[in-house]
Amino acid sequence: AAQVMESYVSEVDPKVIALGSGQTIKAVVGELNNFERPHHRVLSLVGAIGRDGASNPYDVALQAAEKIGSKCFLLPAPLLADSAEERKQWCRHRLYKVVEELSTKADVAFVGIGDIGEGCPLYRDGFITSDEVSELINAGAIGEHVGWAYDEKGELVRDAVQERVRSEE
Which residues contact 150 (CB under 8 A, 6 or more apart)? Predict the structure, then answer.
């Protein structure tokens, strides 16, 4: 995976490289060689703030940008807002719109995939509660990417928890 990422990073033409988060993406970024690519832009697809206000240790967009000498654009929002109304407020923020617009221009996106179940990464990393895990399971969720839960057919799960996700699909 690091070789694939490096194939984009090493290009001379300007690239917009979008990153999810998680253990796998962190490991891939850790394997990257250093480059000087100030014309590239790295952005985070994930709202990286947990329920307790702490940053997500697996949001590695800044680390990736430092390795390749480029600008980093962080999504200034929590992964999961406290309510659907608060989610709308985050989405209206000017800086959020900058990252959202840039995400539509991404040349490539690297995202991890997590399971939904007891002890899943979203729960373990402090983004959702055990009750919210149960709610997602009851709605048919089996996995997630950048906070968006999906069912066994790969369809997005629509429930109250998902109405609060603030990451780029």
Answer: 141, 142, 143, 144, 156, 157
Residue whose entry in the numeric block shows the structure tokens 């959202």: 100
Task: Find out whether 112 and 95 touch, Cβ atoms under 8 Å.
Answer: no
Letter string b/e over residues 39-65, b meaning 16 or more CB atoms within 10 A of that residue's CB: ebbbbbbbbbbbeeeeebebbbbbbbb
Taking the model in full, what pTM does it have?
0.89
Read off the DSSP letter of residue 107: S
Q: Looking at residue 169, what is its pLDDT? A: 57
Q: SS3 of 35, please?
A: coil
In the prediction, which pLDDT does 15 show? 97
Which phi-psi region, left, alpha or beta, contains residue 22 (left: φ > 0; alpha: ψ -120 to 50)? Answer: left
**pLDDT tens by residue, 35-94:** 899 999 999 998 777 778 877 777 899 999 999 999 999 988 888 888 989 989 988 999
